[in-house]
Amino acid sequence: MSFMDKVPMTVRGEQQLRVELDRLLKRRPIITQAIGEARELGDLKENAEYHAAREEQGICEAQIRDIEYKLSVAQVIDIAKMPNNGKVIFGSTVGLIDINTDEELSYQIVGDDESDIKKNLISINSPIARGLIGKEAGDEVSITTPGGVKEFEIDSVTYA
């Protein structure tokens, strides 16, 4: 696998995936036990407990495979260890001023799985993040978003 196949992820994003993987791996034996207990109840064709446990097992195993894959292709970037050259990069937090409304916004640029607009975490692949990458404090940018063209002034760039 080359560097280009890697998917950027923050340290926090990797930790969250590892916690979820650990939770799922601990759930595995509980599901297996539930399947065994349901089998003992007899006829498997009409055994709702058995079918529910098997379905849960399938979902759990799919989630485990998904997380293991994501971790295998992750390029974990610790922004706190990078020298701040003032440019917007993956993992940086960007303070913005909406030029049209004077509204102040702040976004951290993160990986796809970590993005959560309610927590001001935007995906590296979002239009706003793509428009900000490589820019620096004081720059004005026009970004085409699904809601139309937005104009921002970059107020600050922090690596925390």
TrEMBL record:
SUPFAM superfamilies named in the record: FKBP-like, GreA transcript cleavage protein, N-terminal domain
Keyword DNA-binding on entry: yes
Protein's GO biological process: DNA-templated transcription elongation; regulation of DNA-templated transcription elongation
Record-level Gene Ontology MF annotations: DNA binding; RNA polymerase binding; translation elongation factor activity
Pfam families: GreA_GreB, GreA_GreB_N
Keywords: DNA-binding, Elongation factor, Protein biosynthesis, Transcription, Transcription regulation
Gene3D superfamilies xref list: Transcription elongation factor, GreA/GreB, C-terminal domain (3.10.50.30), Transcription elongation factor, GreA/GreB, N-terminal domain (1.10.287.180)
Transmembrane segments: none
Record domain Transcription elongation factor GreA/GreB N-terminal: where: 7-76
PROSITE patterns hit by this protein: GREAB_1 (PS00829), GREAB_2 (PS00830)
Domain Transcription elongation factor GreA/GreB C-terminal: residue ranges: 85-159
Function: Necessary for efficient RNA polymerase transcription elongation past template-encoded arresting sites. The arresting sites in DNA have the property of trapping a certain fraction of elongating RNA polymerases that pass through, resulting in locked ternary complexes. Cleavage of the nascent transcript by cleavage factors such as GreA or GreB allows the resumption of elongation from the new 3'terminus. GreA releases sequences of 2 to 3 nucleotides.
PANTHER family associated with the record: TRANSCRIPTION ELONGATION FACTOR GREA
Family per similarity comment: Belongs to the GreA/GreB family.
Annotated protein name in UniProt: Transcription elongation factor GreA
Biological source species: Enterovibrio norvegicus DSM 15893
